[in-house]
Design brief:
This protein is mostly helical. Among the domains are: 157 residues, no CATH class; 62 residues, Arc Repressor Mutant, subunit A (Orthogonal Bundle), CATH 1.10.10.10; 30 residues. It is built from 23 helices and three strands. A hairpin with a 4-residue loop joins strand 2 and strand 3. Helix 11 packs parallel to helix 13 and helix 13 packs parallel to helix 15. The longest helix has 37 residues. It starts with 48 loop residues before the first helix and ends with a helix.
Length: 526
């Protein structure tokens, strides 16, 4: 209505009331009508913005460091329970947490844990000093608090209880010492301090051998594992006979003898696997075979160690031309491999060797193996290799070996793949014997890209003798005549295949019964 003031003032695009009325006229007394303006809060310009960002980053790093310290100390309770209950499952739980801790592990964090765990008068003060020296934090005092890049040491003793009486410090068990030593090994390995890590590993091994406690078995196995890894990285690298892994073999063999006498299953299984790995790296196949024949791998070893042992044993048998045994061991290794993502590398390596062994046996691997999403990219060169062997194209096979030779050498299968050349030739001859009732040696030489007709004659004669093809060779007229193929079910091949499948099922049944018996024994106390 005219003469009345509107209830609401108009709002402009910026959100301020009265924005459309810039200035109203003067009243009777000449006073200007005041405008209602909402002023946004002023942003204080941070002159030292970069410094503020650095402070936030430091605060975040301190939070991550405190959480890592708490995670490490939480494992001490598991180790205490493992010793009190004499149950290795708690020790294994502590070891499984190392993979998540190592991503956040730094020398300052580890030094803080050591400083807060030990005191200058505690029995483990000598070991703590060795740990600090290994990570380059000798200046940190025991019994203090360390944090950040600079260690701040509390000079005052720990506060007493409510009544003013000092609390007695809990005794640190040797399992905690060795666990912190393993974390030190992990830190040195991730920082690529190979020489320092090898020296510290020797020191830690001596401490473990002096203690002789069965509750340290799982921890000592991990100590020897990193001991071998440090030696592999030092120059001269394997397969040189002057490599460091050759020098540490007496230490590993002595540890194996001690583990057998003490019935230390974990260390025994770990050291056997490490020795096999060491012999294969330096191509000492005969020594690896002697080790397998003179030792007995523990039946109740951890599943991961069993998978590794079967893989190395399968590789030894493949080099010794025992392809059937190698195939059985590698098949069992791939089945026992953990299904987690952290074990994908082992599964890929074992599968690659298994594919090559199957080709050397004259079999063609299943195509579904190459369609697994996690292995499709890594197995692509082997897929091309299988395709060339299946077709019997020697020229394609040689080009694939030349193109992906570096990949095959890195996988350790190059020497075995070179043996496939004869299999490719045999496959090509078999396909030609099925396609032609009679074919000249010259045509065989041209199709297989052989050097001469004499070499083609020798290869055909060897294929006939080995039973690869059913044919006769006429040397005077220079051709190969194939025999008519009868009913395959009238031969021994279906019976042999059926027997192999029955044997595989029976072995799987026996392993399942053993596993059920083990769980049945532990089920009452679990």
């Amino acid at each position: 209505m005219p003469g009345k003031t509107p209830d609401k003032e108009p709002v402009d695009n910026a959100g301020y009331r009265g924005g459309n009325n810039k200035m109203k006229g003067k009243g009777k007394k000449g006073e200007e009508e005041k405008m209602t303006v909402v002023v946004p809060p002023s942003k204080k310009k941070d002159v030292e913005g970069d410094v503020a960002m650095d402070v936030d980053d430091k605060v975040e790093e301190e939070d991550v460091g405190e959480k890592t310290v708490a995670d490490i100390k939480s494992n001490f309770a598991l180790l205490d329970r493992a010793v009190a209950l004499f149950d290795a499952r708690f020790t294994l739980r502590a070891l499984r947490s190392v993979s998540s801790i190592r991503k956040r592990l730094t020398p300052d964090v580890l030094a803080q844990v050591i400083s807060e765990t030990y005191t200058a008068t505690s029995p483990g003060a000598e070991i703590a000093a060795g740990l600090l020296k290994a990570i380059g934090r000798e200046e940190v005092q025991l019994g203090g608090k360390a944090g950040g890049s600079e260690m701040e040491i509390d000079s005052e003793p720990k506060a007493a209880g409510k009544n003013g009486v000092k609390k007695e410090q809990k005794e640190i068990i040797p399992e905690v010492d060795v666990f912190l030593g393993i974390l030190t090994q992990v830190l040195l390995h991730d920082n690529k301090q190979w020489q320092q890590g090898l020296e510290f590993s020797r020191y830690l091994i001596e401490k473990v051998q002096e203690l002789n406690r069965r509750t340290l078995d799982s921890l000592s196995a991990k100590v020897y594992f990193y001991f071998e890894l440090f030696a592999e990285q030092l120059a001269p690298l394997p397969p040189s006979s002057q490599s460091t892994i050759v020098a540490i073999r007496p230490t590993l063999l002595a540890a194996l003898r001690t583990a057998v006498l003490r019935k230390d299953t974990d260390t025994q299984a770990s050291v056997i696997v490490l020795l096999l790995r060491s012999y294969l790296l330096t191509s000492h196949i005969s020594q690896a075979d002697l080790l397998v024949s003179h030792t007995q791998f523990p039946e109740n070893a951890a599943n991961n160690q069993v998978a590794r042992y079967l893989y190395y044993l399968g590789k030894v048998r493949a080099i010794q031309l025992l392809y059937t045994e190698a195939h059985n061991h590698l098949t069992a290794a791939t089945r026992k491999a953990p299904s987690s993502a952290c074990a994908l590398g082992f599964s890929q390596t074992a599968t690659k060797l298994l594919l090559v062994v199957e080709l050397l046996m004259g079999d063609i691997p299943d195509r579904a193996t190459f369609r697994q999403p996690a292995m499709e990219a890594s197995l692509h060169p082997y897929f091309l290799l299988v395709r060339a062997v299946r077709v019997g194209d020697l020229e394609d096979f040689e080009s694939i070996v030349a193109q992906h030779g570096d990949t095959f050498r890195r996988d350790g299968t190059y020497t075995l793949i070179l043996r496939l050349r004869q299999n490719v030739i045999k496959t090509g001859i078999r396909m030609m014997s099925l396609s032609y009732s009679r074919i000249s040696l010259r045509d065989i030489c041209i199709r297989l890209h052989l050097g001469s007709e004499e070499s083609a004659e020798y290869i055909v004669a060897k294929a006939i003798r080995d039973g690869v093809i059913e044919a006769t060779l006429d040397r005077e007229k220079g051709y190969m005549k194939s025999k008519e193929v009868g009913d395959v079910y009238a031969t021994r091949e279906p019976g042999e295949t059926f027997h192999d499948r029955i044997r595989a099922c029976l072995s799987l049944h026996d392993e399942s019964v053993k596993v059920c018996d083990c769980f049945g024994e532990k089920g009452d106390g679990a």
